[in-house]
Amino acid sequence: MNPIVRIATIIAATFLAPAIGLAAAGKVGVIVNAPAGPVKGTTQNGLHVFKGIPYASAPTGDARWKSPAPVPGWKDPFDASAFGPACVQPVTGGNIYAETLSPMSEDCLNLNVWTPKGARKAPVIVWIHGGTLTRGASSQIVYDGAALAKRGVIVVSINYRLGMLGYLAHPELSAESPDGVSGNYGLLDQIAALKWVKENISAFGGNPGNVTVAGQSAGALSVLHLMTSPRAKGLFHKAIAQSAYIPSTPELKRKRFGMPSAEEEGVHLAGKLGAKTIDALRAMDAKALTGGPALAGYQPSATIDGAVLPRQLVDVFDSGEQAAVPVIAGFNSGEIRSLKRMLPPAPANAGDYEAAIRKGYGELSDAYLKRYPATAIDESLLAATRDAMFGWTSERLGRSQSAIGQPAFLYFFDHGYPAADDNGLRAFHASELPYVFGNLARTPDSWPKVPDSKMERDLSEAMMGYWVSFARDGKPAAAGRPAWRPYLPGKAYMRFADVPQGGADLLPGMYELHEQVMCRRRAADIPWHKNLGVSAPTMPPPAEGCR
Question: Which residues does the annotation mark as catalytic?
């Protein structure tokens, strides 16, 4: 090495690196001295990247279904040059989201960090992947955090336990717990990751006092869980919920909303797997607990246990007891186009459609048919399911945060491009992700390919600008783009079509209709997120407090 270059390198390592925890630096490697232990990452295009860092240990085998355990500190540099294993999950294919995830392990509680060189107290975005709480991983290519990090934020993406391994509740497990509860292990993993960020992110140049928790689909549902969990209080300061939904959630020990208790469901699942006890389940191979005929139809869910999750999400938001943080919330115009398994069977004709709606929605049927007419059955089925799941939730979150004095920003992603539009997938579920992450060319093999055009790049740049500025100071803004006004007053929103466009009163009457349906069903103790549209049961009568 040239002596002058060598001296400059030594000076940089000695005087500059310690300010952000860097103990050594070079062309391809960097070491951060974090409280958890030294971590060796890589240097790429102006960023330091650290992959597969263990933030906790998932109890496995004989110790399955316990809270995440702390990882003992280490002295030798941890090699963070490659992603850690994904959590055990079914291997799936045949859809646009399918992606090979290898290797997999029960001990999968690891995270990744992308940080700009020279970062000092940078805002932090913690990303929670989607996948119905059944599948997915932080290593999926669309979640690469480099493009966002280049705009001045630190991006952290995390793994958490999935499926039965992450969400099983069972009376034997509750008896083992100091709190007398079970389930929610995946959520406890997410909380452990946020605690790791709080304790360690300063060493990477991040500000532990400016953390945005973000996610899409089941990741966005997880964001809502974190907003309502007392265990997560103070661990984040802003929230982004992309295509979130608020289902009626099983309660630990009592039947509610037409569902068995979470413990009863756990006993039923164990029986289907031929296991009479938790010890028998713990003796089983992890892969046998994540898929196969015995678990057909099983949908993992968080549990209302009175400890990790105190009450139904809607009840916590109604009482104003959720995290008092600014939010971005929104959904896509074509959410259900890639999720048609969620649709009820289509009626044979317009007459049958209208009759089913009038039977199920009673005096609300005129409002329902105005919004979802019998003259366009296929589109009405798609829009009604989208709105009942994702649209209502987004507006409800905007109203709830506004009610406690926090700014909320609503968006509607309505962008199409040839490969998606030609296959009937305009603005499908998750199609905003490549734009938010700046990864237009980094999508799964079967994903409709985004064209390499100026319009697509400009839209991505705008969305990244809004998301990064929100993480920085709670106000989404992008240079040269329309001002994004808070949702209230005025019901403002941002529409992302070919270009960002500000608007007001998105889908008039949509929120009011589905809020009334939810409120009546909740009062009648029946689920509000199932049996929608033409499959709806008879609408309960008006209830006190429903407006």
Answer: 217, 335, 429
